[in-house]
Amino acid sequence: MSAVQEYIESNKEKFKEELFEILRIPSISTSSAHKQHVGKAADFLVDQLESLDLDRVTRFKTDGNPIVYGELTTDPEKPTVLVYGHYDVQPPDPEDLWDTPPFEPTVRNGDIYARGASDDKGQSFTHVKALESYIKSGTDFPVNIKYIFEGEEEVGSPNLVPFIKEHRELLECDMVLISDTAMFAEDTPSITYGLRGLAYMEVEVIGPNRDLHSGVYGGAVDNPANVLSEMIAQLRDEDGRIQIPGFYDAVKPLTEKEREAYRNLPFDEEEYKDKLGLKALNGEKGYSTLERASARPTLDVNGLWSGYQGEGAKTVLPSKAGAKISMRLVPDQDPKEIAKLFTEHIQSIAPETVTVEVTEHHGGHPSITDLSFYGLKAAGKAFEEVYQKEPLFAREGGSIPIVADFQKVLGAQSILMGFGLNSDAIHSPNEKFALKDFYRGIKTSAKFFELLPEYSE
Ligand code: BES
Ligand code: MN
Ligand code: MN
């Protein structure tokens, strides 16, 4: 065994304890009350990088949360890898559904339970520990490395995009390495080569100037909750096709070759359904479950409010109703264009009995990595050596919008080397990350750096 792999083997307990330290920090970016904690998580990463004697470590201030940067140049002739990760997390709610508190990491059945365990503290930390294993075992690091950790991924990276535009030279690299996705299945290493984009909208329907007695006024005054439901129901037809004019115009159709690749992925639809406690699945007609969940665009209500939500029954005709609606996008849909089409369509179907206000939240572009890129091959080989299994190549339905910006602004492809699982319950109660994948992740990262120079020649 190499000194690097030996260092990893003998430091597992230490790595876990250190991960627990950052998992204990509630760095929730959506909540301004947690601003300090977000800063603490950034400090933790600064300390981590500083302990590795890099050439440079900087904590950049932004208009929002800090960006942590570090770099080590070993040989300008060698490839430079930019590691990206996010240290912010989603809110833990509903908190009462957690079996153990979200910010008190606990191991049960070989899984680490904590908010951020998989998304993305645990996964991104593997690349820090991989470098440490070289440095502390006295092994020359085989490539050049840069780290960029942000604290606003879960709120749409508003300050990272301007940052990379402003620091093109600083961030110059041959590729971006990201662990913020999932493996296709347990013990099934996977390289994600496509991600969906996002357009996130909010619709408010405003009716009478106050809540009304539904017996006194019901029937004569249009009910915003009824109107909103009817409008939402019109957004998709019975085949699951989205009814916004122009919505599909830029969608690149799946090629027969891609569809063939989808069919060859090891996927058990019955098990998928059972694990979610469902009797049946539903989606766009003419596409398989995997295609629907990663290669086709969607429209989903993410939140819906109106009227009386309390205990018992209150007869009321609400004055307002609202919905948060997101659309997952695929190449080459443009989030701004889709937001515009959505807004125009919603206004066009709104009855004159109400006023409708549409606002746009954050969005992001979809992305696809070129499968012939040498970095992907090195990543595939690293996975194979550690997991003793050839990795699958698959697209995923989630979004990491900055991947498209790295492509556009830095001209760099991203290698999405996910160590998580779809069953990790990211964004849900009881988020977890398998301890063994934390360790295999560190090993795979270290292996990747070792193999990369061979592949770049
Ligand atoms: N790590 C996820 C994205 C992800 C999850 C990709 C699973 C592939 C598989 C990321 O932290 C995330 O949650 N992204 C948001 C988008 C963002 C703009 C808020 C998402 O996908 O909802
Ligand atoms: Mn993430
Ligand atoms: Mn997330």
Instruction: Indicate the radius of gyration in whole angstroms.
Output: 24 Å
**Shape call:** globular
Show unreliable segments: none
Helix tally?
Answer: 13
Helix/strand-derived category reads alpha/beta
Percentage of helical residues?
25-40%
Average pLDDT taken over every residue: 97
Secondary-structure arrangement, i.e. CATH architecture of the largest domain: 3-Layer(aba) Sandwich
Query: What is the tally of beta strands?
Result: 18
CATH homologous superfamily of the largest domain, by name?
Answer: Zn peptidases
Question: Could you explain how this protein is built, in words?
Answer:
This protein has 457 residues and is an alpha/beta fold. The chain has two domains: 284 residues, Aminopeptidase (3-Layer(aba) Sandwich), CATH 3.40.630.10; 122 residues, Alpha-Beta Plaits (2-Layer Sandwich), CATH 3.30.70.360. It contains 13 helices and 18 strands. Strands 1, 2, 3, 6, 7, 9, 14, 15 and 16 form a nine-stranded mixed beta sheet that branches. Strands 11-12-10-13 form a four-stranded antiparallel beta sheet, with helices on one face. A three-stranded antiparallel beta sheet has the order 4-5-18. A hairpin with a 6-residue loop joins strand 1 and strand 2. The longest helix has 22 residues. It starts with a helix and ends with a helix. It binds ligand BES and manganese (II) ion (2 copies). One manganese (II) ion (MN) binds next to loops.
